[in-house]
Protein backbone atom coordinates (compact mmCIF):
# COMPACT_ATOMS: atom_id res chain seq x y z
CA UNK A 1 0.00 0.00 0.00
CA UNK A 2 2.79 2.40 0.97
CA UNK A 3 4.54 1.63 -2.29
CA UNK A 4 1.32 2.21 -4.20
CA UNK A 5 0.72 5.60 -2.63
CA UNK A 6 4.34 6.54 -3.09
CA UNK A 7 4.40 5.58 -6.76
CA UNK A 8 1.11 7.40 -7.37
CA UNK A 9 2.60 10.56 -5.87
CA UNK A 10 5.80 10.06 -7.82
CA UNK A 11 3.82 9.59 -11.02
CA UNK A 12 2.03 12.88 -10.42
CA UNK A 13 5.39 14.63 -10.43
CA UNK A 14 7.32 12.98 -13.25
CA UNK A 15 4.45 13.04 -15.70
CA UNK A 16 5.49 15.09 -18.78
CA UNK A 17 3.60 16.77 -21.64
CA UNK A 18 3.18 15.28 -25.10
CA UNK A 19 2.37 18.54 -26.86
CA UNK A 20 1.27 21.80 -25.34
CA UNK A 21 -0.90 23.23 -28.09
CA UNK A 22 -4.25 22.07 -26.77
CA UNK A 23 -6.77 24.68 -25.77
CA UNK A 24 -9.61 23.59 -23.52
CA UNK A 25 -12.93 25.26 -24.29
CA UNK A 26 -15.35 25.55 -21.38
CA UNK A 27 -19.06 25.76 -22.07
CA UNK A 28 -22.30 25.28 -20.18
CA UNK A 29 -24.14 22.96 -22.55
CA UNK A 30 -27.60 23.97 -21.38
CA UNK A 31 -28.51 27.03 -23.45
CA UNK A 32 -29.76 26.13 -26.93
CA UNK A 33 -29.11 27.30 -29.56
CA UNK A 34 -25.88 28.79 -28.15
CA UNK A 35 -24.63 25.56 -26.66
CA UNK A 36 -26.29 22.34 -25.56
CA UNK A 37 -25.67 18.63 -25.11
CA UNK A 38 -27.21 16.90 -28.13
CA UNK A 39 -28.90 13.50 -28.18
CA UNK A 40 -25.58 11.75 -28.57
CA UNK A 41 -24.29 13.38 -25.43
CA UNK A 42 -21.93 15.69 -27.32
CA UNK A 43 -21.62 19.45 -27.02
CA UNK A 44 -23.45 21.04 -29.93
CA UNK A 45 -24.86 24.39 -30.99
CA UNK A 46 -23.74 27.69 -32.47
CA UNK A 47 -20.72 27.96 -30.19
CA UNK A 48 -19.57 24.42 -30.94
CA UNK A 49 -19.52 25.22 -34.67
CA UNK A 50 -17.92 28.60 -34.05
CA UNK A 51 -15.31 27.30 -31.62
CA UNK A 52 -14.26 24.44 -33.88
CA UNK A 53 -13.91 26.83 -36.82
CA UNK A 54 -11.92 29.37 -34.77
CA UNK A 55 -9.56 26.66 -33.52
CA UNK A 56 -9.16 25.41 -37.06
CA UNK A 57 -8.21 28.87 -38.30
CA UNK A 58 -5.85 29.50 -35.40
CA UNK A 59 -4.23 26.09 -35.85
CA UNK A 60 -5.12 25.03 -32.33
CA UNK A 61 -6.14 21.63 -31.10
CA UNK A 62 -9.31 22.18 -29.08
CA UNK A 63 -10.95 20.02 -26.46
CA UNK A 64 -14.49 20.72 -25.20
CA UNK A 65 -15.33 20.76 -21.52
CA UNK A 66 -18.77 21.02 -19.94
CA UNK A 67 -18.99 23.11 -16.77
CA UNK A 68 -21.99 24.42 -14.86
CA UNK A 69 -22.73 28.08 -15.33
CA UNK A 70 -22.43 29.21 -11.72
CA UNK A 71 -18.80 28.03 -11.43
CA UNK A 72 -17.76 28.73 -15.01
CA UNK A 73 -15.63 31.82 -14.21
CA UNK A 74 -13.91 30.40 -11.06
CA UNK A 75 -12.93 27.28 -12.98
CA UNK A 76 -11.47 29.38 -15.78
CA UNK A 77 -9.26 31.42 -13.48
CA UNK A 78 -8.10 28.34 -11.59
CA UNK A 79 -7.00 26.82 -14.90
CA UNK A 80 -9.41 23.90 -15.44
CA UNK A 81 -9.91 25.13 -19.00
CA UNK A 82 -8.58 28.04 -21.05
CA UNK A 83 -11.60 29.76 -22.55
CA UNK A 84 -15.26 30.32 -21.78
CA UNK A 85 -17.41 30.09 -24.87
CA UNK A 86 -20.88 29.95 -23.40
CA UNK A 87 -23.03 32.82 -24.65
CA UNK A 88 -21.41 35.07 -22.08
CA UNK A 89 -22.12 38.76 -22.57
CA UNK A 90 -19.27 41.18 -22.13
CA UNK A 91 -19.91 43.30 -19.03
CA UNK A 92 -17.78 45.63 -16.96
CA UNK A 93 -18.12 43.45 -13.82
CA UNK A 94 -16.93 40.31 -15.59
CA UNK A 95 -14.17 42.23 -17.32
CA UNK A 96 -12.66 42.98 -13.92
CA UNK A 97 -12.11 39.27 -13.28
CA UNK A 98 -11.43 37.89 -16.76
CA UNK A 99 -10.68 39.24 -20.22
CA UNK A 100 -12.91 39.02 -23.26
CA UNK A 101 -12.11 38.62 -26.93
CA UNK A 102 -13.96 40.94 -29.30
CA UNK A 103 -17.64 40.05 -29.57
CA UNK A 104 -18.69 37.31 -31.97
CA UNK A 105 -22.39 38.10 -31.51
CA UNK A 106 -24.05 41.50 -31.53
CA UNK A 107 -25.74 42.60 -28.30
CA UNK A 108 -28.69 40.23 -28.36
CA UNK A 109 -32.13 41.44 -27.27
CA UNK A 110 -33.29 40.02 -23.96
CA UNK A 111 -37.00 39.52 -23.48
CA UNK A 112 -39.64 38.60 -20.92
CA UNK A 113 -42.01 35.70 -21.37
CA UNK A 114 -45.04 34.85 -19.29
CA UNK A 115 -47.84 32.28 -19.30
CA UNK A 116 -50.67 32.84 -21.76
CA UNK A 117 -53.42 33.57 -19.26
CA UNK A 118 -54.33 37.16 -18.48
CA UNK A 119 -52.23 40.25 -18.93
CA UNK A 120 -49.65 40.15 -16.19
CA UNK A 121 -47.25 43.02 -15.96
CA UNK A 122 -43.94 41.20 -16.10
CA UNK A 123 -42.05 44.07 -14.58
CA UNK A 124 -43.58 43.99 -11.14
CA UNK A 125 -44.12 40.37 -10.17
CA UNK A 126 -41.62 37.62 -9.45
CA UNK A 127 -39.30 37.26 -12.42
CA UNK A 128 -37.04 34.24 -12.95
CA UNK A 129 -33.58 34.47 -14.48
CA UNK A 130 -30.49 32.30 -14.46
CA UNK A 131 -28.00 33.00 -11.68
CA UNK A 132 -25.19 35.45 -12.44
CA UNK A 133 -26.48 36.54 -15.83
CA UNK A 134 -26.95 40.05 -17.17
CA UNK A 135 -30.69 39.36 -17.15
CA UNK A 136 -30.60 38.55 -13.43
CA UNK A 137 -28.96 41.86 -12.59
CA UNK A 138 -31.33 43.69 -14.92
CA UNK A 139 -34.35 42.16 -13.15
CA UNK A 140 -32.91 43.01 -9.76
CA UNK A 141 -32.38 46.63 -10.81
CA UNK A 142 -35.81 46.89 -12.42
CA UNK A 143 -37.52 46.62 -9.03
CA UNK A 144 -39.16 43.27 -9.69
CA UNK A 145 -38.56 40.36 -7.31
CA UNK A 146 -35.78 38.21 -8.73
CA UNK A 147 -35.92 34.42 -8.50
CA UNK A 148 -32.60 32.90 -9.54
CA UNK A 149 -32.13 29.41 -10.94
CA UNK A 150 -28.99 27.41 -11.70
CA UNK A 151 -29.94 26.41 -15.23
CA UNK A 152 -31.95 28.24 -17.90
CA UNK A 153 -34.29 25.26 -18.21
CA UNK A 154 -35.28 25.54 -14.55
CA UNK A 155 -36.47 29.12 -15.08
CA UNK A 156 -38.91 27.89 -17.74
CA UNK A 157 -40.15 25.06 -15.49
CA UNK A 158 -40.69 27.54 -12.67
CA UNK A 159 -42.82 29.68 -14.96
CA UNK A 160 -44.87 26.70 -16.12
CA UNK A 161 -45.42 25.57 -12.53
CA UNK A 162 -46.59 29.03 -11.53
CA UNK A 163 -43.70 29.66 -9.15
CA UNK A 164 -42.82 32.86 -10.98
CA UNK A 165 -44.79 35.22 -13.16
CA UNK A 166 -42.25 35.80 -15.90
CA UNK A 167 -38.86 34.69 -17.18
CA UNK A 168 -36.20 36.95 -18.56
CA UNK A 169 -33.52 35.54 -20.84
CA UNK A 170 -31.90 36.00 -24.23
CA UNK A 171 -34.62 36.23 -26.84
CA UNK A 172 -32.98 33.68 -29.10
CA UNK A 173 -33.13 31.13 -26.29
CA UNK A 174 -36.78 31.92 -25.53
CA UNK A 175 -38.10 32.15 -29.10
CA UNK A 176 -38.23 28.38 -29.88
CA UNK A 177 -39.71 27.68 -26.44
CA UNK A 178 -42.51 30.20 -27.02
CA UNK A 179 -43.06 28.96 -30.58
CA UNK A 180 -43.47 25.35 -29.45
CA UNK A 181 -45.62 26.03 -26.39
CA UNK A 182 -48.93 25.98 -28.35
CA UNK A 183 -49.83 29.39 -27.03
CA UNK A 184 -49.01 28.45 -23.45
CA UNK A 185 -46.21 31.01 -23.28
CA UNK A 186 -45.89 34.43 -24.86
CA UNK A 187 -43.53 37.37 -25.02
CA UNK A 188 -44.49 40.37 -22.95
CA UNK A 189 -43.24 43.93 -22.95
CA UNK A 190 -40.41 45.44 -24.92
CA UNK A 191 -37.13 43.79 -25.83
CA UNK A 192 -34.28 45.00 -23.66
CA UNK A 193 -30.77 45.55 -24.95
CA UNK A 194 -28.25 44.81 -22.23
CA UNK A 195 -24.63 43.70 -22.32
CA UNK A 196 -21.96 44.47 -24.87
CA UNK A 197 -22.36 41.49 -27.16
CA UNK A 198 -21.12 37.98 -26.59
CA UNK A 199 -17.40 37.20 -26.50
CA UNK A 200 -15.06 34.47 -25.37
CA UNK A 201 -13.81 34.71 -21.80
CA UNK A 202 -10.06 34.27 -21.32
CA UNK A 203 -7.80 34.57 -18.26
CA UNK A 204 -6.34 38.06 -17.85
CA UNK A 205 -2.83 36.62 -17.82
CA UNK A 206 -3.39 34.82 -21.12
CA UNK A 207 -3.14 37.73 -23.56
CA UNK A 208 -1.49 35.65 -26.32
CA UNK A 209 -4.48 33.35 -26.49
CA UNK A 210 -6.79 36.36 -26.51
CA UNK A 211 -4.92 37.84 -29.50
CA UNK A 212 -5.04 34.50 -31.32
CA UNK A 213 -8.81 34.24 -30.96
CA UNK A 214 -9.31 37.94 -31.77
CA UNK A 215 -7.48 37.40 -35.05
CA UNK A 216 -9.50 34.27 -35.83
CA UNK A 217 -12.77 36.08 -35.11
CA UNK A 218 -11.60 38.95 -37.33
CA UNK A 219 -10.96 36.60 -40.20
CA UNK A 220 -14.41 35.04 -39.79
CA UNK A 221 -16.00 38.47 -39.73
CA UNK A 222 -14.09 39.51 -42.85
CA UNK A 223 -15.07 36.62 -45.07
CA UNK A 224 -18.69 36.55 -43.88
CA UNK A 225 -18.51 33.02 -42.51
CA UNK A 226 -19.48 34.27 -39.05
CA UNK A 227 -22.69 35.74 -40.46
CA UNK A 228 -23.47 32.46 -42.19
CA UNK A 229 -23.09 30.63 -38.89
CA UNK A 230 -25.26 33.16 -37.04
CA UNK A 231 -28.00 32.80 -39.65
CA UNK A 232 -27.79 29.03 -39.47
CA UNK A 233 -28.39 28.90 -35.70
CA UNK A 234 -30.34 32.09 -34.94
CA UNK A 235 -32.43 32.57 -38.09
CA UNK A 236 -32.78 35.48 -40.48
CA UNK A 237 -33.77 38.05 -37.90
CA UNK A 238 -30.50 37.86 -35.97
CA UNK A 239 -28.29 40.94 -36.10
CA UNK A 240 -25.22 40.35 -38.23
CA UNK A 241 -21.81 41.96 -38.52
CA UNK B 1 -29.25 2.31 -31.55
CA UNK B 2 -31.89 0.59 -33.69
CA UNK B 3 -32.19 0.94 -37.46
CA UNK B 4 -35.60 2.57 -37.38
CA UNK B 5 -34.36 5.40 -35.17
CA UNK B 6 -33.14 7.47 -38.12
CA UNK B 7 -36.25 9.66 -38.14
CA UNK B 8 -37.81 9.83 -34.66
CA UNK B 9 -40.69 12.08 -35.81
CA UNK B 10 -42.58 9.26 -37.56
CA UNK B 11 -42.22 6.56 -34.90
CA UNK B 12 -44.98 5.02 -32.82
CA UNK B 13 -44.88 5.70 -29.09
CA UNK B 14 -43.20 2.42 -28.20
CA UNK B 15 -40.56 2.73 -30.92
CA UNK B 16 -40.00 6.36 -30.01
CA UNK B 17 -39.24 5.43 -26.42
CA UNK B 18 -37.05 2.50 -27.43
CA UNK B 19 -34.96 4.93 -29.50
CA UNK B 20 -35.08 7.72 -26.95
CA UNK B 21 -34.00 5.55 -24.05
CA UNK B 22 -31.06 4.12 -25.96
CA UNK B 23 -29.63 7.29 -27.50
CA UNK B 24 -26.07 8.33 -26.75
CA UNK B 25 -27.09 10.66 -23.97
CA UNK B 26 -29.00 7.94 -22.13
CA UNK B 27 -26.08 5.54 -22.45
CA UNK B 28 -23.96 8.15 -20.65
CA UNK B 29 -26.69 8.36 -18.00
CA UNK B 30 -26.60 4.57 -17.49
CA UNK B 31 -22.81 4.59 -17.29
CA UNK B 32 -22.93 7.22 -14.55
CA UNK B 33 -24.69 4.65 -12.30
CA UNK B 34 -21.60 2.49 -12.70
CA UNK B 35 -19.55 5.49 -11.61
CA UNK B 36 -21.43 5.62 -8.30
CA UNK B 37 -20.76 1.91 -7.68
CA UNK B 38 -17.11 2.39 -8.61
CA UNK B 39 -16.83 5.31 -6.21
CA UNK B 40 -18.29 3.23 -3.38
CA UNK B 41 -16.08 0.24 -4.09
CA UNK B 42 -12.90 2.33 -4.09
CA UNK B 43 -13.80 4.74 -1.31
CA UNK B 44 -15.04 2.30 1.32
CA UNK B 45 -11.79 0.32 1.79
CA UNK B 46 -9.74 3.50 1.52
CA UNK B 47 -11.78 5.23 4.21
CA UNK B 48 -11.55 2.14 6.45
CA UNK B 49 -7.79 2.03 6.05
CA UNK B 50 -7.50 5.73 6.84
CA UNK B 51 -9.81 5.31 9.81
CA UNK B 52 -7.85 2.35 11.14
CA UNK B 53 -4.55 4.21 10.84
CA UNK B 54 -6.00 7.23 12.60
CA UNK B 55 -7.54 5.09 15.35
CA UNK B 56 -4.19 3.41 16.05
CA UNK B 57 -2.48 6.80 15.94
CA UNK B 58 -4.89 8.19 18.53
CA UNK B 59 -3.61 5.51 20.93
CA UNK B 60 0.01 6.09 19.97
CA UNK B 61 2.82 6.75 22.45
CA UNK B 62 3.99 9.75 20.42
CA UNK B 63 2.33 13.00 21.36
CA UNK B 64 2.63 14.53 17.90
CA UNK B 65 0.98 11.57 16.18
CA UNK B 66 -1.71 11.55 18.83
CA UNK B 67 -2.45 15.25 18.44
CA UNK B 68 -2.45 15.08 14.67
CA UNK B 69 -4.86 12.15 14.45
CA UNK B 70 -7.16 13.63 17.10
CA UNK B 71 -7.19 16.92 15.25
CA UNK B 72 -7.93 15.13 11.97
CA UNK B 73 -10.87 13.17 13.41
CA UNK B 74 -12.35 16.11 15.25
CA UNK B 75 -11.90 18.77 12.59
CA UNK B 76 -13.26 16.68 9.74
CA UNK B 77 -16.17 15.38 11.80
CA UNK B 78 -17.03 18.86 12.95
CA UNK B 79 -17.14 20.55 9.55
CA UNK B 80 -20.15 20.12 7.24
CA UNK B 81 -19.43 17.61 4.45
CA UNK B 82 -20.35 20.01 1.69
CA UNK B 83 -17.81 22.60 2.78
CA UNK B 84 -15.13 19.96 2.89
CA UNK B 85 -16.06 18.65 -0.54
CA UNK B 86 -15.75 22.11 -1.98
CA UNK B 87 -12.48 22.73 -0.16
CA UNK B 88 -10.42 19.51 -0.47
CA UNK B 89 -10.35 18.96 -4.25
CA UNK B 90 -9.32 22.55 -4.94
CA UNK B 91 -6.67 22.47 -2.23
CA UNK B 92 -5.16 19.14 -3.25
CA UNK B 93 -5.20 20.15 -6.91
CA UNK B 94 -3.51 23.51 -6.30
CA UNK B 95 -1.02 21.97 -3.88
CA UNK B 96 0.09 19.38 -6.43
CA UNK B 97 0.23 21.91 -9.25
CA UNK B 98 2.10 24.39 -7.09
CA UNK B 99 4.76 21.83 -6.15
CA UNK B 100 5.06 20.62 -9.73
CA UNK B 101 5.45 24.23 -10.81
CA UNK B 102 8.32 24.77 -8.34
CA UNK B 103 10.07 21.58 -9.50
CA UNK B 104 9.51 21.74 -13.25
CA UNK B 105 9.69 25.46 -13.90
CA UNK B 106 12.16 26.93 -11.39
CA UNK B 107 13.02 29.66 -13.94
CA UNK B 108 9.56 31.24 -13.60
CA UNK B 109 9.75 33.85 -10.86
CA UNK B 110 6.24 35.29 -11.16
CA UNK B 111 3.88 34.37 -8.39
CA UNK B 112 1.38 31.66 -9.29
CA UNK B 113 -1.36 33.83 -7.85
CA UNK B 114 -1.87 36.86 -10.06
CA UNK B 115 -5.03 38.68 -9.07
CA UNK B 116 -7.71 36.04 -9.22
CA UNK B 117 -5.77 33.78 -11.60
CA UNK B 118 -3.93 30.66 -10.48
CA UNK B 119 -1.18 30.26 -13.06
CA UNK B 120 1.34 27.47 -13.22
CA UNK B 121 3.54 26.77 -16.24
CA UNK B 122 1.94 24.45 -18.77
CA UNK B 123 4.26 21.58 -17.90
CA UNK B 124 3.12 21.72 -14.29
CA UNK B 125 -0.56 21.38 -15.03
CA UNK B 126 -2.23 18.22 -13.85
CA UNK B 127 -3.65 16.77 -15.94
CA UNK B 128 -1.93 18.45 -18.85
CA UNK B 129 -3.93 20.59 -21.21
CA UNK B 130 -3.01 18.27 -24.06
CA UNK B 131 -4.41 15.22 -22.31
CA UNK B 132 -7.65 13.80 -23.63
CA UNK B 133 -10.81 14.54 -21.67
CA UNK B 134 -11.00 11.07 -20.08
CA UNK B 135 -7.76 11.69 -18.20
CA UNK B 136 -9.25 14.91 -16.84
CA UNK B 137 -12.36 12.97 -15.86
CA UNK B 138 -10.35 10.31 -14.04
CA UNK B 139 -8.30 12.95 -12.27
CA UNK B 140 -11.44 14.75 -11.11
CA UNK B 141 -12.88 11.43 -10.00
CA UNK B 142 -9.73 10.58 -8.00
CA UNK B 143 -9.88 13.95 -6.25
CA UNK B 144 -13.48 13.15 -5.35
CA UNK B 145 -12.48 9.70 -4.06
CA UNK B 146 -9.80 11.32 -1.87
CA UNK B 147 -12.30 13.81 -0.46
CA UNK B 148 -14.77 11.06 0.35
CA UNK B 149 -12.03 8.90 1.89
CA UNK B 150 -10.76 11.76 4.06
CA UNK B 151 -14.23 12.67 5.33
CA UNK B 152 -15.45 9.12 5.94
CA UNK B 153 -12.04 8.07 7.25
CA UNK B 154 -12.53 10.49 10.14
CA UNK B 155 -15.86 8.93 11.03
CA UNK B 156 -14.38 5.45 10.69
CA UNK B 157 -11.51 6.48 12.98
CA UNK B 158 -14.01 7.30 15.67
CA UNK B 159 -15.84 4.00 15.20
CA UNK B 160 -12.60 2.01 15.33
CA UNK B 161 -11.39 3.95 18.35
CA UNK B 162 -14.54 3.06 20.24
CA UNK B 163 -14.39 -0.54 19.05
CA UNK B 164 -10.79 -0.93 20.22
CA UNK B 165 -11.71 0.41 23.64
CA UNK B 166 -14.52 -2.12 23.86
CA UNK B 167 -12.14 -5.06 23.67
CA UNK B 168 -12.10 -6.32 27.31
CA UNK B 169 -9.32 -4.61 29.23
CA UNK B 170 -8.51 -7.79 31.15
CA UNK B 171 -7.46 -9.55 27.95
CA UNK B 172 -5.04 -6.78 27.10
CA UNK B 173 -3.61 -6.85 30.63
CA UNK B 174 -3.23 -10.61 30.36
CA UNK B 175 -1.38 -10.16 27.10
CA UNK B 176 0.89 -7.58 28.69
CA UNK B 177 1.69 -9.85 31.59
CA UNK B 178 2.72 -12.50 29.08
CA UNK B 179 5.23 -9.94 27.79
CA UNK B 180 3.54 -9.17 24.47
CA UNK B 181 4.70 -6.06 22.63
CA UNK B 182 2.25 -3.31 21.50
CA UNK B 183 2.37 -4.72 18.00
CA UNK B 184 1.56 -8.19 19.25
CA UNK B 185 -1.28 -6.87 21.39
CA UNK B 186 -2.82 -5.16 18.36
CA UNK B 187 -2.40 -8.09 16.01
CA UNK B 188 -3.39 -10.96 18.30
CA UNK B 189 -5.89 -9.39 20.67
CA UNK B 190 -7.33 -6.06 19.56
CA UNK B 191 -7.70 -6.29 15.78
CA UNK B 192 -9.37 -9.74 15.67
CA UNK B 193 -11.96 -8.74 18.24
CA UNK B 194 -12.69 -5.13 17.47
CA UNK B 195 -14.70 -5.94 14.31
CA UNK B 196 -17.63 -7.21 16.37
CA UNK B 197 -17.85 -3.84 18.06
CA UNK B 198 -17.11 -1.83 14.93
CA UNK B 199 -19.62 -3.49 12.62
CA UNK B 200 -22.77 -1.56 13.60
CA UNK B 201 -20.92 1.74 13.27
CA UNK B 202 -19.30 0.75 10.00
CA UNK B 203 -22.55 -0.41 8.40
CA UNK B 204 -24.08 2.87 9.41
CA UNK B 205 -21.20 4.69 7.72
CA UNK B 206 -21.63 2.61 4.57
CA UNK B 207 -25.26 3.72 4.34
CA UNK B 208 -24.25 7.34 4.86
CA UNK B 209 -21.57 6.99 2.21
CA UNK B 210 -24.10 5.67 -0.30
CA UNK B 211 -26.42 8.51 0.43
CA UNK B 212 -23.74 11.15 0.07
CA UNK B 213 -22.59 10.03 -3.40
CA UNK B 214 -24.74 12.66 -5.16
CA UNK B 215 -22.25 15.17 -3.75
CA UNK B 216 -20.18 14.21 -6.79
CA UNK B 217 -22.47 16.56 -8.66
CA UNK B 218 -21.15 19.45 -6.55
CA UNK B 219 -17.62 18.69 -7.70
CA UNK B 220 -18.64 19.18 -11.32
CA UNK B 221 -18.51 15.48 -12.10
CA UNK B 222 -21.14 14.34 -14.57
CA UNK B 223 -22.85 11.90 -12.25
CA UNK B 224 -26.40 10.51 -12.09
CA UNK B 225 -27.81 13.78 -10.77
CA UNK B 226 -26.24 15.81 -13.58
CA UNK B 227 -27.60 13.50 -16.28
CA UNK B 228 -31.03 13.22 -14.66
CA UNK B 229 -31.35 16.99 -14.60
CA UNK B 230 -29.94 17.36 -18.10
CA UNK B 231 -32.12 14.63 -19.64
CA UNK B 232 -35.24 15.56 -17.72
CA UNK B 233 -35.26 19.24 -18.68
CA UNK B 234 -37.77 20.21 -21.36
CA UNK B 235 -36.42 19.89 -24.89
CA UNK B 236 -37.43 21.95 -27.92
CA UNK B 237 -37.34 20.62 -31.47
CA UNK B 238 -33.66 21.52 -31.79
CA UNK B 239 -33.23 18.10 -30.17
CA UNK B 240 -34.12 14.85 -31.93
CA UNK B 241 -36.46 13.82 -29.14
CA UNK B 242 -38.37 16.90 -27.97
CA UNK B 243 -40.35 16.45 -24.76
CA UNK B 244 -41.75 18.57 -21.90
CA UNK B 245 -40.25 18.73 -18.42
CA UNK B 246 -39.69 15.09 -17.37
CA UNK B 247 -37.36 15.73 -14.47
CA UNK B 248 -39.76 14.14 -12.01
CA UNK B 249 -39.44 10.75 -13.77
CA UNK B 250 -35.68 10.92 -13.93
CA UNK B 251 -35.36 11.85 -10.28
CA UNK B 252 -37.82 9.07 -9.45
CA UNK B 253 -35.45 6.62 -11.14
CA UNK B 254 -32.63 7.91 -8.93
CA UNK B 255 -34.83 7.44 -5.91
CA UNK B 256 -35.48 3.82 -6.87
CA UNK B 257 -31.79 3.24 -7.57
CA UNK B 258 -30.67 4.50 -4.17
CA UNK B 259 -33.45 2.63 -2.37
CA UNK B 260 -32.38 -0.59 -4.09
CA UNK B 261 -28.73 0.03 -3.30
CA UNK B 262 -29.38 0.64 0.40
CA UNK B 263 -31.82 -2.30 0.60
CA UNK B 264 -29.28 -4.71 -0.91
CA UNK B 265 -26.58 -3.38 1.41
CA UNK B 266 -28.86 -3.87 4.37
CA UNK B 267 -29.54 -7.50 3.44
CA UNK B 268 -25.83 -8.24 3.08
CA UNK B 269 -24.90 -6.45 6.30
CA UNK B 270 -27.64 -8.32 8.16
CA UNK B 271 -26.25 -11.64 7.00
CA UNK B 272 -22.78 -10.67 8.16
CA UNK B 273 -23.98 -9.55 11.57
CA UNK B 274 -25.98 -12.78 11.98
CA UNK B 275 -22.77 -14.71 11.53
CA UNK B 276 -20.89 -12.59 14.01
CA UNK B 277 -23.35 -12.09 16.82
CA UNK B 278 -25.13 -14.77 18.82
CA UNK B 279 -28.88 -14.32 19.19
CA UNK B 280 -29.85 -13.15 22.63
Please tell me about this protein's structure.
The complex is a heterodimer of chains A (241) and B (280). Chain A is built from nine helices and 13 strands. Chain A is α/β, with parallel strands linked by helices and 241 residues long. Chain A has two domains: 124 residues, D-Maltodextrin-Binding Protein, domain 2; 85 residues, D-Maltodextrin-Binding Protein, domain 2 (3-Layer(aba) Sandwich), CATH 3.40.190.10. Chain A has a five-stranded mixed beta sheet. In chain A, helix 2 packs across helix 8. Chain A starts with a helix and ends in a 7-residue tail after the last helix. Helices cover 70% and strands 1% of the residues of chain B. The termini of chain B are far apart. Chain B has 280 residues and is mainly α. In chain B, helix 2 packs antiparallel against helix 3, helix 3 crosses helix 5 and helix 6 packs antiparallel against helix 7. The chains are: A alpha/beta (241), B mainly alpha (280). At the A-B interface, strand 1, strand 5 and helix 6 of A face helix 2, helix 4 and strand 2 of B.
Low-confidence stretches of chain A: 16-20
Total of helices of chain A: 9
SSE order of chain B, one letter for each helix or strand:
HHHHEEHHHHH
- Using CB atoms under 8 Å apart, which protein chain pair has the greatest interface? A-B, 50 and 47 residues
- State Rg of chain A: 20 Å
Mean pLDDT of chain B: 90
CATH fold-type name of the largest domain in chain A: D-Maltodextrin-Binding Protein, domain 2
What is the ordering of alpha helices and beta strands of chain A? HEEEEHEHEHEEEHEHEHEEHH
Percentage beta strand of chain B:
under 5%
List segments of chain B where confidence is low: pLDDT < 50 over at least 5 consecutive residues.
none
Average pLDDT of chain A, to the nearest integer? Answer: 87
Helix content of chain A: 25-40%
Strand order of the largest sheet of chain A: 5-1-6-13-7
Under CATH at level 1, the class of the largest domain in chain A stands as Alpha Beta
Q: What coarse outline of chain B follows from CA principal-axis ratios?
A: flat
Overall number of strands of chain B: 2
> Could you give the distance between the termini of chain B?
56 Å
CATH architecture of the largest domain in chain A: 3-Layer(aba) Sandwich
So how many helices of chain B?
9
The amount of beta strand of chain A, in percent, is: 15-25%
Amino acid sequence: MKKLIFSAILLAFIYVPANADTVRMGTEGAYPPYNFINDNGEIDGFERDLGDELCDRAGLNCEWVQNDWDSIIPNLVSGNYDTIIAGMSITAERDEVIDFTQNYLQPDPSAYITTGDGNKAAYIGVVAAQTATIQASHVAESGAILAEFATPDETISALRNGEVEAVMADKSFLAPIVAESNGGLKFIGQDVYIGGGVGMGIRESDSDLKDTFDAAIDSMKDDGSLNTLIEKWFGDEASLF
Amino acid sequence: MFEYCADPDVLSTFEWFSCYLTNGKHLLFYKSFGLIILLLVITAPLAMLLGLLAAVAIKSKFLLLRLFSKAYANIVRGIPDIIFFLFIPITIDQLIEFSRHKIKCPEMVDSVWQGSDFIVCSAAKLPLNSDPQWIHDIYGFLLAVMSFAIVYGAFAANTFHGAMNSVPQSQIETGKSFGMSRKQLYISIIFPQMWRYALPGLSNLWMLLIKSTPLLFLLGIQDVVYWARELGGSKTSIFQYPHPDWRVWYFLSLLVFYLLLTKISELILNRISKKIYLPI
